[in-house]
């Protein structure tokens, strides 16, 4: 399992939260040192997101996340400090910012203080996370309905797709040559399975936008990602 990367020391430490990194090829050059923070364009919200936090010294730290390349860039008072592949722990004196993301959204974006206290950074205006948080504040009923709908979709997917997946796995030679293959009582047409997979992906995005994750419930979207 990939550990947290510290860009100051260039070392990789143990991952205390159990996240798998998703660093891809660098599709664009990293920002230059001390370059200004570019404006966030909502048209790129499927590819990027951004979070910020005010520090006790009155400075503002911003983390710009590029989902496509698996990178995070740290800015302080709107000036670039460093860029690194996720998982990454950016040092801020005695504190640090931990950043982890999947293709569905953020898994962790927290300021960790020296005393062990943690605070999640605030989503920047225009980002999907900011829009979703505003929806819940302005229309709490709709927000709860979306969250509940995502849970229902993923639960149904587990019930309907898990037996079919188990049948496929147990028919592989490694299993079938030693044990009796499992026959799924559920056999949906390919079109229905495709629709369920798409619905699960949308549910996974909804849960990522609200920083919800459950090892069992979100197992399918974790599998789709991998």
From TrEMBL:
Keywords: Membrane, Transmembrane, Transmembrane helix
Ranges where the record places region Disordered: 1-41
Residue intervals passing through the bilayer: 145-166, 186-205
Keyword Transmembrane helix: yes
Name assigned to this protein: Uncharacterized protein
């Amino acid at each position: 399992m990939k550990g947290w990367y510290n860009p100051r020391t260039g070392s990789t430490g143990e991952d205390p939260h159990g996240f798998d990194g998703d660093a891809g090829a660098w599709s664009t050059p990293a920002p230059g040192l001390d370059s200004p923070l570019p404006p966030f364009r909502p048209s790129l919200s499927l590819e990027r997101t951004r979070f910020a936090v005010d520090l006790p010294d009155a400075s503002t730290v911003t983390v710009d996340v590029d989902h496509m390349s698996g990178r995070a860039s740290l800015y302080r008072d709107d000036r670039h400090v460093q860029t690194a592949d996720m998982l990454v722990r950016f040092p801020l004196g005695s504190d640090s910012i931990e950043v982890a993301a999947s293709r569905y959204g953020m898994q962790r974006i927290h300021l960790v203080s020296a005393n062990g206290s943690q605070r999640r950074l605030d989503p920047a205006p225009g980002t999907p996370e900011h829009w979703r948080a505003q929806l819940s504040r302005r229309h709490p009923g709709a927000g709860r309905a979306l969250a509940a709908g995502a849970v229902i979709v993923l639960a149904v997917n587990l019930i309907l797709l898990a037996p079919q997946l188990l049948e496929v796995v147990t028919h592989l030679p490694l299993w079938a040559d030693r044990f009796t293959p499992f026959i799924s009582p559920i056999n949906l047409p390919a079109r229905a399975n495709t629709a369920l997979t798409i619905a699960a992906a949308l549910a996974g995005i909804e849960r990522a936008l609200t920083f919800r994750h459950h090892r069992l419930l979100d197992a399918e979207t974790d599998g789709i990602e991998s």
